[in-house]
Amino acid sequence: MKADSRIVVLHADLAGSGGFDKVAKDPSINSGQAPSMNSGGQSRVINVGVAEANMCMMAAGMRQVGLLPVTYTFAAFGTNEARANARLIDVNCGHTRCAILNDCTHAGLSVGEDGETHQERNYLNLPFDHTQVWMLADSNQAAAAAEKGLQLIAQGETSVYVFFPRSGHEQLKTPKGATIYGKDYTFDGMMDIVRGAGDETDNVTIIATGIPVHDAIAAADRLWNEEKIRARVLNVSCIRPIDASAVIQAALETAHIVVVEDHHSEGGLATQVADVIADFQLPCSLRRLGVNHYFPSGSDKDLKFLAGLDDESIADAVQDAIKDEVCGSEDAFVTAVFALATNAKLSRFKNSVQSFIDRLKSDASYLNGLREIWKKRTCPVEKLPTNKQLREKLGEETMLGEEK
Fold first, then answer.
1. Positions of CATH 3.40.50.920 in the chain
2. Residues with Cβ < 8 Å from 6, sequence gap 6 or more?
3. Which of 4, 60, 135, 223 could, after both became Cys, cross-link 210 (CB 3.0–4.6 A)?
4. Helix or strand holding residue 227 (H, E)
5. pLDDT tens for residues 155-212?
6. How far apart are CA 7 and CA 69, in angstroms?
7. Beta carbons of 141 and 204 less than 8 angstroms apart
C-alpha cells in the first residue's frame, strides 16, 4: 500500500484477523489520500461491517473510479455471502473495468477450533469467466502473487479470489534446505515441481494446493527415504484456470495421480484434474484426498489427521495407488496423443494445454521415450483376467457399511 496510493482495503469487521488493523494505524499509509477520495482524509483501510456482498460491490465501484480495491474476509463468508455479487462483477468484467482482488483467509480445516460453521470446504468452486482462483503454499509465493493480482485488477478485466489457511507454515524448501520461492520468483500461475525429477523416472504424481503441499512434500521425502519411490509433487497455485499441460505430462509420465486438498474432493482441485483426464482421454489412475464431510472443533493438526491429509496418510494413499497397475499399453498412449489436438479444440483447457502439444511436436526424443515406456505396460492377452475372475474381484468389494 505504501508503493501505490490507489490501493484500498475493505474488510468485513475482521481487520485484526488479516493484519489490517496494524496497517490502518500506520501513518505512512493513511496520512495521505488515495486518488478520487474526497478531502476528508479517510483511512485506506475501510470497515464495511458484516456486509460481505455490499463490500464486493463497493470495491467494484472503487475500481471504476481508478482505485485498486482489495476485499478481506474469511473464506466461508467471501464465497457464500458475497457469491451473488462476485458473479455480477464477473459478468461486468466482460464489459467494463471493475475487477477486484478478494483476499480470503481461514480456508478449510485450518480454522481448527472455530468448528463446522467456519469450515468452508467449497471455496475453490468458483467457475466464473473473468475470475481467477488462487491458493498459495507459503508467504513468499503469496507476496509474488499479490503483485500479480494487483496487476490484473489494474488492467480491470480479471478479478482474483486468493485463499489462505488460518494456520502458520514455513517457507517451502528443497531437499537441501534452500528456499524454493526466493526474491527472484515471479508468480505465473503455472504448476511448480517442488519434489521429484519431473521426468519419466518419477513413479507417481501428487498434485496439491495450499498447506497440503507441505504435507505432500513430507510424504514424498518419506516415500523416497523409506521405499525408494520417487514421487513428483506439483504445487498448484492457480486452480482456475488450471495448468492442464502439467496434468497431462504427469499422467503420461507417471500414470498415477493423487490429488490432495484442504477442500471437498467435489468441485475443487481434484475435479479440475479429473476434467483434464476426461477431456484428453488420459490413461492414468486418480485418487482424491480431501475434506468430504464436516469435522468437529479441534486443532488444525488433529483435524488434518482425521481427514487423512497428514503426510503419513498421503504416503499410504500413494503406495495404494501405485499398486493399481495401469496396463494401458502403447495403444492407449497413442490414442491419447493422436486425439490431443482435436480434444484441445473442444476443451475449456485448450489454452493451457498448448505448451505440452508444442513439446510433443518439437521434441521427437521425448515422444519416442514416452511411447517406449507405454509399450512396456502392455499386458499379455493370456494374463488378462477371465470374466469369472472379474466377477470374483467385484464380489470381494462390499458396499460402504455392508458386511461380507
1. 192-375
2. 34, 35, 66, 67, 68
3. 135
4. helix 212-227
5. 999 999 999 999 888 999 999 999 999 999 999 999 999 999 999 999 999 999 999 9
6. 6
7. no
